[in-house]
């Protein structure tokens, strides 16, 4: 590791140039525990790197605690925190690198703009409750939740600095001689029984944070930490000016007895459903500030309550790289706008963008487009499928539509009774048909060319596990063990029966090269799973095998091996099981993952399985190695994501709940581009599942909660 340099008589004036392999750039803040710097990883990922003060680096007790907390922080997902990217607690100066998270702290927001509105406060309450639930599930107690440790982002609040105690935050000391937490936001038991502090202390801190957000001051207020400590233990909180609708819940959080406080889950339940419709915080673009000059090698010491504010240096604006010969074409098409599907229902030729790009322009550059499919009523991101040179999308409360992938123009649309929070993508059927289904209605087929209604299957809903297009057939399940298959073109029934060896099989992925459909069934006690493959046209079981564990088919490798998730505890998986194409016993391989993953979806290229968890953490796992091996891991910081989709040129794409589309280079494990959030009226609605993007050559199609479908150039993700 490069040396950590020092200047000046005071050792804490030391200004390291590196932390591990990370070159430290701008100083973001300095506080009692250490200094936070802006840095970048080799792939360009922006990081906030905290370097511990030298005087604590020499304290064995502090080093041990720092090491434990880094390990605990790694277990917490990145949906609600600034995730740990790298750390070295054993370095000469211990350090930890977390993902740089744009957005002001709650302390800054209240100080500059005053208390939050009731809608913003509900959103904050729900977001922090979710964050604490996630942190506590990982076995971590924050112990220092306060306004300066809450970042406000367009995807909801993020909690930073969890689990890392601050030895000099106050002159007040515990029996160990070091205070754990910040007095205005500490629970009574942190003063009285510091060794018995549990998750309920974080709930108390949440109550104090909410009072601060609603009023600009805490429920216990004094300039003296000793007086604050007395008030926390003995006095009733001051809830003046806290909105009436939230005051009872906040009061419960501030109960003196930890057992009387609600859990994070109970807080979320108390807020449903309005909290998910509350206005999301959209941070304004901020210029890079001019940092105060410091002594050579030093760092400006900011206010102690904002010392870890890793958000005051805005990311540099990315330059849009435009080939000179394409400049005129891009200027001409960047101004295109879309019209809604409602107009398309009567005059489809006028929907979507007004001017299509010329063929010669499309061949060299794709400027993108955006078409709103739903502009009224409760919105949800449309779900789309690409095939046969067309894009088909289902929108909530509207129906199914065919879009031109070049211009975004709506070619035809048909109303269907779809009113799901997350519409299911259309089913691409054989012989020029496309299917769509309502949550509890039939699967309906439409002619892909003109949208003429065709056959319908009236016994199924749109849950993905209830029907599966499979070559020239569609296999349907009633969810109770009954299966049948229809001819994709005519809708004629091919067969109807159960599968030998299965009671209530679950439909898995269809593998076009082999023409086989995977099925599985887990035992009632979850100890074993029967897996197999079926010929969709006949219902013949080709092979089946009983395997230990609760398994679920994920896909197939390039050599035809079936990949299954090995569940540790739903939804967490801790391994993969591979079964050869013939299903033989000697073809079964079990591979352990490096850690348990709350898997959202996988994308398989060759022998590499790309696993995306629900919080945006991406793992590339090579199954060709005898025991499997991790090629790379990437923390994107995105929460509530879609299933990942592979594209050309070592690209992988996935969508985020706020409408962003992210691009990853799978060769390097680097985030190489993302679109802006696309919220409707600045609101972020709750979606249990996010529709996956679609890839077609040099174009990627995404959808957003503003009810729109959009397209971007897959060749230039850095300019999105």
From TrEMBL:
The keyword Transferase applies. Pfam families: Pkinase, PQQ_2. Residues 22-282 form the Protein kinase domain. The keyword 4Fe-4S does not apply. InterPro entries: Kinase-like_dom_sf (IPR011009), PQQ_b-propeller_rpt (IPR018391), PQQ_rpt_dom (IPR002372), Prot_kinase_dom (IPR000719), Protein_kinase_ATP_BS (IPR017441), Quinoprotein_ADH-like_sf (IPR011047), Ser/Thr_kinase_AS (IPR008271), WD40/YVTN_repeat-like_dom_sf (IPR015943). GO terms for molecular function: ATP binding; protein serine/threonine kinase activity. Keywords: ATP-binding, Kinase, Nucleotide-binding, Serine/threonine-protein kinase, Transferase. ATP binds at residue 50. PANTHER family: MITOGEN-ACTIVATED PROTEIN KINASE KINASE KINASE 20-RELATED, SERINE_THREONINE-PROTEIN KINASE YBDM-RELATED. This is Serine/threonine protein kinase. It comes from Streptomyces gardneri.
């Amino acid at each position: 590791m490069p040396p950590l340099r020092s200047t000046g008589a005071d050792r804490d004036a030391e200004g390291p140039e590196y932390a591990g392999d990370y070159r430290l750039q701008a100083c973001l803040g300095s506080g009692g525990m250490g200094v936070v710097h802006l840095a970048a990883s080799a792939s360009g990922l922006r990081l906030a790197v905290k370097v511990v003060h030298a005087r604590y680096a020499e304290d064995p007790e502090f080093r041990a605690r720092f090491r434990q907390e880094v390990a605990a922080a790694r277990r917490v997902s990145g949906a609600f925190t600034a995730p740990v990217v790298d750390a070295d607690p054993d370095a000469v100066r211990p350090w930890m690198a977390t993902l740089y998270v744009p957005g002001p702290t709650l302390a800054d927001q209240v100080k500059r703009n005053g208390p939050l509105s009731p809608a913003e406060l509900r959103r904050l309450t729900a977001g922090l409750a979710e964050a604490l639930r996630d942190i506590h599930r990982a076995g971590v107690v924050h112990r220092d939740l306060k306004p300066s440790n809450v970042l406000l982002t367009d995807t909801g609040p993020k909690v930073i600095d969890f689990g890392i105690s601050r030895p000099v935050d106050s002159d007040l000391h515990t029996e160990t001689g070091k205070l754990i937490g910040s007095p205005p936001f500490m629970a009574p038991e942190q003063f009285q029984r510091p060794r018995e502090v549990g998750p309920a202390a974080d709930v108390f801190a949440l109550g104090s944070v909410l009072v601060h957000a609603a009023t600009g001051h805490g429920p216990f207020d004094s300039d003296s930490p000793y007086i604050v400590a007395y008030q926390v233990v003995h006095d009733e909180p001051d809830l003046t000016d806290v909105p009436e609708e939230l005051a009872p819940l906040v009061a419960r959080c501030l109960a003196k007895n930890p057992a009387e406080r609600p859990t994070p889950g109970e807080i979320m339940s108390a807020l449903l459903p309005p909290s998910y419709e509350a206005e999301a915080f959209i941070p304004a673009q901020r210029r890079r500030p001019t940092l105060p000059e410091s002594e050579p090698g030093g760092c400006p010491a900011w206010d102690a309550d904002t010392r870890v504010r890793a958000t005051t240096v805005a990311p540099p604006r990315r330059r849009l790289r435009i080939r000179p010969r394409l400049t005129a074409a891009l200027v001409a098409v960047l101004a295109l706008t879309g019209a809604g599907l409602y107009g398309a229902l009567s005059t489809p030729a006028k929907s979507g963008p007004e001017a299509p790009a010329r063929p010669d322009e499309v061949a060299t550059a794709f400027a993108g487009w955006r078409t709103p499919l739903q502009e009224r009523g409760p919105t949800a991101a449309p779900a789309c499928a690409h095939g046969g040179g067309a894009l088909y999308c289902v929108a909530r409360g509207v129906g199914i539509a065919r879009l031109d992938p070049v211009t975004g123009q709506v070619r035809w649309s048909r109303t269907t009774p779809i009113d799901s929070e997350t519409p299911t993508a259309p089913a691409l059927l054989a012989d020029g048909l496309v299917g769509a289904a309502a949550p509890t209605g039939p699967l309906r087929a439409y002619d892909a060319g003109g949208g003429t209604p065709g056959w319908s299957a009236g016994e199924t809903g749109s849950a993905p596990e209830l029907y599966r297009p499979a070559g020239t057939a569609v296999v349907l399940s009633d969810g109770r063990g009954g299966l049948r298959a229809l001819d994709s073109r005519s809708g004629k029934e091919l067969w109807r029966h159960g599968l030998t060896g299965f009671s209530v099989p679950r439909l898995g992925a269809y593998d076009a090269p082999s023409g086989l459909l995977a099925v599985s069934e887990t035992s009632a006690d979850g100890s074993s799973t029967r897996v197999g493959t079926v010929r969709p046209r006949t219902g013949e079981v080709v092979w089946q095998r009983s395997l230990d564990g609760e398994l679920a088919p994920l896909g197939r490798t390039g050599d035809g091996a079936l990949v299954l998730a090995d569940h540790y505890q739903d939804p967490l998986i801790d391994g993969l099981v591979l079964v050869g194409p013939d299903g033989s016993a000697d073809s079964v391989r079990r591979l352990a993952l490096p850690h348990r993953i709350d898997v959202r979806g996988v994308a398989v290229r060759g022998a590499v399985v790309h696993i995306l968890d629900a919080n945006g953490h991406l793992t590339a796992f090579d199954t060709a190695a005898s025991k499997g091996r991790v090629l790379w891991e990437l923390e994107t910081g995105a929460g509530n994501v879609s299933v990942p989709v592979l594209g050309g040129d070592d690209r992988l794409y996935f969508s985020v709940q706020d409408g962003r589309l992210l691009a990853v280079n799978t060769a390097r494990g680097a985030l190489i581009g993302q679109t802006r959030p696309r919220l409707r009226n600045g609101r972020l609605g709750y979606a249990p599942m996010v529709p996956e993007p679609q890839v077609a050559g040099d174009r990627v199609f995404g959808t957003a909660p503003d009810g729109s479908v959009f397209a971007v150039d897959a060749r230039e993700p850095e300019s999105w």
